[in-house]
Write a structure and sequence with these properties.
- By secondary structure, the protein is mostly helical.
- The chain has one domain.
- It is built from three helices and no strands.
- It has helices at 11-16, 54-78, 82-116.
- α2 runs antiparallel to α3 (82-116).
- The longest helix is centred in the last third of the chain and has 35 residues, at 82-116.
């Protein structure tokens, strides 16, 4: 029941939009970050695509870079009291981290799928 990959859409873009990297139709996750067992649309198995802590590391680096840059800019430009920093940055860190984690995990899964196609038999 396995379909050929959809040539009109890249596995990277499919992963970024949380879709199956093979057909771009089925869902990649069955929860917030829980990888589905396989694609309901094409039957592609996802068990070999788990990324571990890689996406979390990238999210930490990206969100940390943005928040530290913004915090330094705000501090130098306005010199607000410490409570303003304590009120501003935790929601930005939490929102940015939770918002970036699924698409980044999907992107890394799509990249893994794309680069392993010729090396390992899928299934």
């Amino acid at each position: 029941m396995e379909q050929a990959p959809d040539a009109s859409r890249s596995p990277l873009l499919a992963g970024l939009t949380l879709r199956c990297p093979n057909c771009s139709k089925g869902k990649l996750f069955k929860g917030y970050l829980k990888l589905a067992d396989g694609c309901a649309a094409c039957g592609e198995g996802f068990s070999a695509l788990e990324q571990g802590d890689g996406p979390a590391v990238f999210v930490t680096l990206i969100v940390g870079f943005v928040v530290v840059g913004l915090a330094l800019t705000v501090e130098v430009a306005y010199m607000p009291p410490l409570w303003v920093h304590a009120a501003l940055w935790p929601p930005l860190i939490l929102g940015g981290s939770l918002g970036l984690l699924p698409p980044l995990k999907g992107l890394l899964i799509g990249a893994h799928f794309r680069h392993r196609k010729g090396e390992v038999e899928r299934g």
